[in-house]
């Protein structure tokens, strides 16, 4: 898939664990893991907003488009 999810990169930059982000965003660990590993087929803007707020970043820091 040409859309790459960089949640793990931003979590590492902010030194934030999956559990901590899960609590801040109020999303289950399993759903956050699906998003983090790039297996998600969609993401709500409200979830993206909460992740950006928790990680103090922009949506472009989380999502990236790469040509296949």
Structure description:
It is a single chain. The chain is mainly alpha-helical. Helices cover 56% and strands 9% of the residues. Strands 1-2 form a two-stranded antiparallel sheet. The longest helix is centred in the last third of the chain and has 11 residues, at 45-55. The radius of gyration is 11 Å and the shape is globular. Residues 13-62 form the HTH cro/C1-type domain.
In short:
This protein is mainly alpha-helical. 56% of the residues lie in helices and 9% in strands.
- Kindly report the average pLDDT value: 94
Report the C-alpha radius of gyration, rounded.
11 Å
> Uncertain segments of ≥5 residues (pLDDT<50)?
none
Number of strands: 2
Number of helices: 5
Order of helices and strands: EHHHHHE
Sketch the major β-sheet: 2 strands, antiparallel
Strand arrangement, largest sheet? Answer: 1-2
Provide the helix percentage.
55-70%
Distance between the termini: 8 Å
SS-derived structural category: mainly alpha
Shape: globular
> What fraction of residues sit in β-strands?
5-15%
Domain HTH cro/C1-type: 13-62
Protein name: Helix-turn-helix transcriptional regulator
Pfam families: HTH_26 (PF13443)
GO molecular function: DNA binding
What features would you highlight for this structure?
68 residues; mainly alpha; 2 strands
How are the secondary structure elements laid out?
Elements: E1 3-5, H1 7-13, H2 18-25, H3 29-36, H4 45-55, H5 59-62, E2 63-65
Antiparallel strand pairs: 1-2
